[in-house]
Amino acid sequence: MSTDLRIEFCKSKASADRWREEVELLREEMARTKRFFKFRSSEWSALASSQPRGTPGDKAEVEGRCACALEQAAQFDRMHDCYVSLWEGI
Questions:
Q1: Residues 6 or more apart from 30 whose CB is under 8 A from it?
Q2: How many domains in the chain?
Q3: Domain residues for 60?
């Protein structure tokens, strides 16, 4: 086997190894992103359910905070679902 051929083989193998590593990193990043969206959604849902029950005058404020937290939770759920559908076949 000639030296030139060995050099080309080593360069090609190094390139293939780098691409394999990139694919592995991308898959891990995709999994972390999905977990992040679910985590943030559950955080906002927990915040909505833990709103203190104040005096009757504070009822509108508590309901507003709860509605805002639930909307944030729903938004993270939608982002998760959209992300999953975009990357489903990969």
A1: 87, 90
A2: 1
A3: 3-87
